[in-house]
Amino acid sequence: MAAGTFCGAGDEIIFMRYGFSVYPIATRRVGAVPVEVADKDYATDVDAILAHVTDRTRLVFLANPNNPTGTYTPRDEIARLHAGLPPHVLLVLDQAYSEYLDPEDDDGGLELARTAPNVLVTRTFSKIFGLAAARVGWGYASADVINAMHRIRQPFSFPIGSSRAAIAALEAQDFVENSRTHNAQWLVWFEKEIAALGNKGLRAIPSKANFSLVLFEGETSAETAYKGLMDAGYIVRWLPGQDLPHGLRITIGTPEDMQGLVAALRRIVGA
Q1: For the domain 174-269, what is the CATH superfamily, name and number?
Q2: Between helices 255-269 and 222-231, what is the axis angle to 10°?
Q3: Taking residues 178-182, what's their average pLDDT?
Q4: CATH topology of domain 2-171
Q5: Has this prediction a pTM greater than 0.85?
Q6: Is the CB of residue 112 less than 8 Å from the CB of residue 78?
Q7: Where do you find CATH 3.90.1150.10 in the chain?
Q8: What is the Cα–Cα distance from 229 to 257, expressed in whole angstroms?
Q9: pLDDT tens-digit series, residues 61-111
Q10: What are the start and end residues of each CATH 3.40.640.10 domain in the chain?
């Protein structure tokens, strides 16, 4: 909706390499020009984004934490990015995984959206709340941005059952906190296990989300590991379509899932 509201043929939309796969789709859908910016070791490079802003730039997509890398852009860098953008460029901060962050890692996006006329923050109930099938999301921005988006949205957004499920989910804060705590504990554990396989060419990109991007830079390819894990009963995301044929995005699961997956991964790489 943001792309359709504020961009058209010939306009430019900027997003990071290894960003969310929907950004180029949303860009091309409205006839705009996708501008993919180089990363900094799989993380957002604010200077690279600002260097690609032109008179035709209308929108910048930035996921924080990022999907599929799990990388995080701190508050001061988000502020620096926003300060460097012309007023006519809308900064869309995609905070789908923000509930997994510790309070001190708040990137300041909601405050920016409250005070700046060209910032839109998007959130979702699909991640920590566990309501992916309900397809409920929400956005926060100035009245001018929201009113403009209302003009192009479909008259029916989502079913009343999805709305009620989202409201109920907001009241289930114990579930959210337990999910955050579990994820934090097992993400650290998993990254340590992957670090122990560094001699086999495995590397986990430091993540602030509920998954880890594991790179296969040794003899065992990501494709081989993907198929081996599938044979062992573990479905992960292999990412050749996002220019990451050497990477697997692995979501944090139950303790039994994580221990079993690591054991299977050790067998696959010969550790």
Answers
A1: Aspartate Aminotransferase, domain 1 (3.90.1150.10)
A2: 130
A3: 96
A4: Aspartate Aminotransferase; domain 2 (3.40.640)
A5: yes
A6: yes
A7: 174-269
A8: 12
A9: 999 999 999 999 999 999 999 999 999 999 999 999 999 999 999 999 999
A10: 2-171
Distance separating alpha carbons of residues 224 and 200, to the nearest angstrom? 14
C-beta of residue 110 within 8 angstroms of C-beta of residue 125: no
Q: Among residues 223, 214, 215, which one has the least CA distance to residue 190?
A: 214
Task: Return d(Cα 20, Cα 94) in angstroms, integer.
Answer: 9
Mean pLDDT of 130-152: 95
Q: Which two tokens stand for residue 97?
A: 């995984």
